[in-house]
Every structure is written in C-alpha cells, then in structure tokens.
Specification:
Elements (H helix, E strand, L loop, with lengths): L1 E3 L2 E3 L2 E3 L6 E5 L6 E6 L3 H18 L4 H30 L3 H25 L3 E4 L2 E7 L2 E5 L5 H15 L2 E5 L6 H12 L7 E3 L4 H10 L5 E5 L2 H11 L5 E5 L5 E4 L5 H13 L11 E5 L3 H13 L18 H16 L3 E4 L17 E4 L6 H4 L6 E7 L2 H9 L3 E2 L1 E5 L3 H10 L4 E4 L12 E2 L8 H6 L2 E7 L4
Helix pairs in contact: 1-6, 2-3, 2-4, 2-5, 3-4, 6-7, 8-9
The structure holds NADP nicotinamide-adenine-dinucleotide phosphate and magnesium ion.
Length: 473
C-alpha cells in the first residue's frame, strides 16, 4: 500500500491545510493500492505564493545554472526510473514492458531534449536597433492527465524549468504515484525552493483554483476537450495564457501501393498499445475500399494476437484505467453495433478468462462510415474503426472530416505520394512510415487544442516576447 499524503510546496513536504484523503484503485485488480491527500484552494494559495516568490530569482538565473539543475534531475531520474515504471503499472495498468519501457523512456527523452534545446536556445535577438528578448512568462499551472502520466509531466515541467518559469503541477487523481516520485526526484536534484510545487487533488477543486488564481500567468492543460474549455473560461477574466492539448480521432492512411496486410497489422497493434488510451492514436484506419476484405482479415489477426492480462506479466495490453473508462468503452462498442458497423475482432465484455480488472477486448470494427459516432468521437480505448476510401482525394477528405486534428499517419511505398497526403492533412503531427522525433512540435489543429509541446516549440509556450527599441548593440 502506498501512502502519499503530503504535497511539495516551497521545497518542503507539507500536509494539506485541511486533511482529506482518497483511495487509489489498481485497475488490474480493482483493489485499493494506496491513498493520497486531496488539496484545497488554501493549498493552491500557498503553492502559488511560493512559485511567485521564487520567480524573482529563478527567472534571473543563467542558462548554465538551469542546465546544471536539469542535469542533476537527469541523474536522479535515471536512479528512480524503475520505481516510476512500477508506479505507472500500478496506477494506470500499463503492462510492465511498456511501463518500464516507453512510459519512462518518454520522461527521460523529453528531459534530454530540453537539455539539448536549452544549450542552443536563442533567448534574445538583435535586429538593427531593436533587441527582441524572450522572457519567462511567470507562474505556470501545469494540469496533466493519467494516460501517459510521465510523458505529460515531462513535456510541461522541463521546458518550464528551462525557460526560467516557476510552477505548480496538478497531476491526475487516477495516476498520482509517478507524479509523487517525480516530485521527490526534483527535490533530491536540488531544484531551488518554490520553483517547482506539486499538489494532489481533484481537478474541480485544485484545477479551478489554479485557473482562476490572480497570480497564475499561464495554464498548460492536457486532457479532455470539455475540461479544456472550462479552464479557458475560468482563465479568461485574468487574461492568462491557456495552452490546450486535447483529444483526437486521428486517421491512419494506408495508401494503395503499401503492403496492406503488414501495414494494417502494425496499425492495429499500435492502436492497442496502452489499451488505446493515447491522444494521438491512429483510431480511424483508412484503407482502399476495394481491398476492405483483405484489410479486415489482417486487422482481425493482429487484434486477436494482442495478449491481454495482468500487467505484471509479459502481455501487450493491461486493463483500461478505471471502471468509468471501461463503461464508456463498452457503451461505444454497443453504439458501434447499433450503428451497423461490423465487429471484426473483440466486442463487448471482458476478454475470456479475465473476470476481475478493467480489461477490454482489443476490438476492430469494419464497414464503418465516417459519419458514425464511433468514427467521430474519441473512444479512448482499444477500439479501431476501419473505413474504406475510393481514391487518395477521398482518403484525404475522410481524414480531414473530423472535429479533431491532433495526429495522422501515412504509410505507403512511394515517399512523394506519402508526403503529398501528409501535406493535405489538417492536423498538427503526422508520422510518415513510422517517423518519430523528440524535437518535432506536438499539438493539435481544430478541437485538438492550440498548444505545441516537445522540443524547441515547447519552450515558446512558456516565454513572453519583449521588444526593446533603440537598444544599442
Ligand atoms: P480530463 O478528465 O480532462 O483530466 C485532465 C486533468 O484535468 C486531470 O488532472 C483532471 O483532474 C483535471 N481537471 C478536471 N476537471 C478540471 C477543471 N474543471 N479544471 C481544471 N482541471 C480539471 O482528461 P483525462 O480523462 O485525464 O485524459 C484523457 C484526455 O486527455 C483525452 O481526451 C485525451 O485525448 C487527452 N490527451 C491529450 C493529449 C495531447 O497532448 N493532446 C495527451 C494525452 C491525453 P482529476 O481527473 O484528477 O480530477
Ligand atoms: Mg477524466
């Protein structure tokens, strides 16, 4: 049993102003795995005051001073990486291989990237008699989701630190453990007091107190569209900068010249990674209509080959995060059937042999039309919909016929054709034939948000631009 009852405020582990706790459930067992404290607006006031005070000195540090701090964090992170992986497995159910692998590697990757970017970043630029300076925006509230918990924290905290901002992190109640270890790492690494603060608690309480707080300058939020809108409204009277990283319903386009079976198989198994709980998942698979039967056969084999079970074991997929998430996914599966889509693999209920834990069957729907709800709404579970297209123009039109625009995937044999499709897709991040890059900006068009995280672009979110005219070179 884990007990994380204190918050990290002003360089100290402190009890909440008013004691209140919540149980954390292990989604693989449905059993209580530990307890956290839930904070209140009074705790937010303390954390914001600490961050505001620390901003005076942290914002004036040199690049080298901040690099030293980030490198100390890197050393501490490496020591605790296995513990973080265990925490992620327990809190949100990622299988051990994934939790110890990609989940923790993403944290390390963003840290290494922030260090590389900081070494070279231009904080000022002389243009004639004008100096354009980029300065830290101030006190930042960082509100993160549970699905890739360390990734989400890392893409916010490291650029905020690197640019000289101070911050309050509000991790999700569903994944509080990895955040707690993260705070311990920053404490050990010697981040000056007040620069980084961490409070646990409900979004409705802590998140609202942060979004409306007069001394918070920026809110960086990753999560659902509804909450993103609520935060923006709460932040509007204070004219805060609000960076929103929201959901998606991204298209995975397999072009006609691609090895169809191979690409459909890899698109299907990729969809099931993290139980489908990935904002950038390629959840709409677009294949040539005339080859639908071949595609569905490959998708069925791939989905049925995904091993599901106890995350401690050697499985490809664990449970989904919670009972609520399980129920939402089950409703979507029923909706898909009701809409006339054909279940090709999986379907309603738990996989055979699993009677406890929030396990979902890796599910594939065929004969899906892009107007169906299962093609328009983010399911956030291991559910893939396969849609047929007539030609490339039709594929692009279907891909773009979405309220979202977070990610996209284009696979094909002809590189120029892939590039052309990628250019026509109205989405912020597109992977062509498996391309991946920690330095590439990540963020959405349309209702997928307005921010750009990762690498150098992630730094810009935390910076104000100041013009000094008549500035003698
Ligand atoms: P969520 O329900 O929106 O919650 C995200 C965070 O916001 C949590 O820490 C939550 O706190 C907090 N929150 C809830 N209500 C709030 C309020 N009124 N004011 C301020 N904060 C509030 O999202 P989720 O269910 O955790 O995550 C899934 C969603 O995130 C999906 O839509 C997914 O696509 C999206 N996502 C997007 C990206 C991206 O980069 N674009 C990446 C990952 C995930 P509590 O839940 O602890 O109360
Ligand atoms: Mg939620």
């Amino acid at each position: 049993m884990r007990e994380y009852l204190k918050f990290y405020i002003d360089g100290q582990w402190v009890a909440p102003s008013t004691p209140k706790t919540a149980e954390v459930i292990n989604p693989a067992t449905e059993a209580v795995s530990g307890r956290i404290s839930l904070g209140s607006a009074a705790d937010v006031d303390k954390a914001v005051a600490a961050a505001k005070k620390a901003f005076a000195s942290w914002s004036q540090t040199t690049r080298e001073q901040r690099l030293d701090v980030l490198q100390s964090i890197q050393a501490e992170y490496a020591k605790r990486q296995t513990e973080i992986g265990d925490a992620i497995m327990e809190e949100m159910g990622a299988p051990s291989g994934l939790a110890q692998g990609f989940h923790t590697a993403l944290g390390a990757g963003h840290l290494a990237t922030a260090i590389e970017v900081l070494k070279e970043f231009k904080f000022s630029e002389q243009r004639g008699a004008t100096l354009i300076a980029k300065e830290p925006i101030g006190v930042c509230a960082l509100i993160t989701p549970w699905n890739w918990p360390m990734n989400q924290i890392a893409v916010k905290v490291f650029p905020a630190l690197a640019t000289g901002c101070t911050m309050i992190l509000k991790p999700p109640q569903l994944a509080p453990y990895s955040a707690q270890i993260f705070a311990e790492i920053l404490d050990k690494a010697g981040v000056p007091k007040g620069v980084f603060n961490m409070l646990q608690g409900s979004g409705a309480v802590i998140g609202t107190a942060l979004s409306t707080h007069p001394d918070v300058d920026l809110i960086s939020f990753t999560g659902s569209e509804g909450v993103g809108v609520e935060i923006a409204k709460n932040a509007a009277p204070g004219v805060k900068r609000v960076c929103q990283e929201l959901g998606g319903k991204s298209a995975f386009v397999v072009l006609d010249d691609a090895d169809l079976a191979k690409n459909v198989a890899s698109a299907t198994s990729s969809m099931m990674i993290n139980s489908g709980q990935t904002c950038s998942a390629g959840s709409r698979l677009l294949v040539p209509k005339k080859r639908m039967a071949e595609a569905l056969e490959a998708a069925k084999a791939a989905a049925e080959g995904v091993t599901v079970g106890d995350p401690k074991g050697n499985v490809a997929m664990g449970p989904v995060v919670s009972k609520a998430q399980y129920n939402i996914i089950q409703e979507y599966i029923e909706t898909g059937v009701g809409e006339g889509a054909k279940i090709v693999a999986g379907g309603a209920g738990r996989p055979e042999g699993l009677s406890k834990g929030w396990y979902v069957k890796p599910t594939v729907f065929g004969n899906v039309s892009n107007s169906m709800r299962i093609a328009r709404e983010e399911i956030f579970g291991p559910v893939l919909v396969v849609i047929g297209y007539d030609d490339v123009d039709d594929a692009v039109a279907i891909a773009n016929d979405s309220d979202f625009g977070l990610a996209g995937y284009v696979n094909g044999a002809d590189a120029a054709a892939c590039n052309a499709v990628a250019r026509r897709m109205r989405t912020g991040w597109i992977s062509i034939n498996g391309g991946y890059d920690f330095h590439a900006p990540f963020g959405g068009y349309k209702k997928s948000g307005n921010g750009r995280e990762w690498g150098e672009f992630g730094f810009h979110e935390y910076l104000e631009v100041k013009s000094m005219l008549g500035y003698a070179p």
